[in-house]
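Retro notes
What went well: the complex prediction finally ran end to end.
Inputs used:
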Amino acid sequence: MRDAAHPMGEIGWIAAEDDGHGAAPLLPLTVRGLCYEAGGRKLINGLDLELGAQGISIVMGPNGAGKSLLLRLLHGLISPSAGQISWGAAPLSARVRQRQALVFQKPVLLRRSVGDNIDFVLRLRGRASAGRRDELLSRVGLLGLASQPARLLSGGEQQRLSLARALATEPEVLLLDEPTASLDPASVHLIEGIVVDAGRSGVRIVFVTHDIGQARRLADDVVFLHRGRVAEHSVSQDFFRTPASEAARDFLAGRIVL
Amino acid sequence: MAFALVASGDGDLYEIIGLSLQVSLTALFASCIIGFGLGTLIAVTRFPGRGVAIIAFNTMMGLPPVVVGLLVYLALSRSGPLGVLGLLYTPAAMIIAQTILITPIVAALSRQIVEDLFNEYDELFRSLSVPTLQAMGAVLWDARFSLITVALAGFGRAIAEVGAVMIVGGNIDHLTRVMTTAIALETSKGDLALALALGIVLLAISMTVNALALSLRSTAARQAYA
């Protein structure tokens, strides 16, 4: 494993500063000895990980490596069997979770109009305004569909709405679980653009994908999971040029990774 | 002759219809307040005995009206625990009986609907840290079309019920006589025209309720809100 203790060394750590909200910074993220068991199987098995304060981290790995599980554990939707997750100096809590947003692989949309899906979150965060809603919808190219029932949108539009709703929470960390799976290239391009823009505006991105091309386009660093552990965590260029782990080499070469 | 009676605007007939609607709609209102609340609470919370509560409500959906009538009669009769209220043989007693009869229906069906939708929203709500009460409100709102259908089913059961209201209302003319009890009485007296006229109205109400339910379901499905 390439320098698992400080994988972001070349990108650099951002000094812990106040985030302007008066709360302690969420990053860096430190995960130690994380385990998750289900049905007698260790699906996450002693995972260690550190993520710095900026950039887009791509989480890759074969099916069953534990990518989606890791995201849910980091967000606190499920509890680990063992191990620790620290966002900044704080353990995972509801308050920490409120400063993150998770976009699910399969969009979960309220049975309401497109605009009402955004309004729900804005009201929840005490920031309801038609202007803000329209701005978010415009950002994801859905302003013209604001009054449409959300469930009548296409797959790509539904995912863009999910993304807009996540951004409505003004997250410091955006966790994305294969948001472009099964989408056409145009939708993938749109969503990648939104994610890159969010990253540029200072949102820390953790993006799960199977798509090697997408990982090349987006990644500042790559976390490669295999059998519930971090097999490799490298700066993007290094990962794609000279993958250190055998599993990553096989994965990038299109060979079956067991 | 029965149709002529309906069309004639007969005062007695419309008094009976009016009381029937008043009793059943009030019972429905009370049942929806209690049933939606209980159903939602059971759907979104986990507590010891939850499974027993679900089985109990599901079982009570088939409560025999005469048994409910008997229990309410015992409770409201002069020597019963609520006898001092003097409600026996009043519309209030009939409302209580019908409320008891249809609340389990409303609670059990709404529990299932709310639970299904809540399971769908669960991870999203937890991800957004939506407070429980707000989550309950959001699910109730989003399930409103299905819940209205549940309410209509409850109303259908209440308006067509005869056993319980007969026991606790007594079928007193100009006081507690509703459509179902009047039909039973007029049939036994041989006044089939009035009985048939009331039957026609009852069927028309039932058909309207069913048409409304169907229309709501298809509207909701068409707009992808269901």
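What we learned: Residues 1-20 of chain A have pLDDT under 50 and may be disordered.
What to try next: split runs per interface for comparison.
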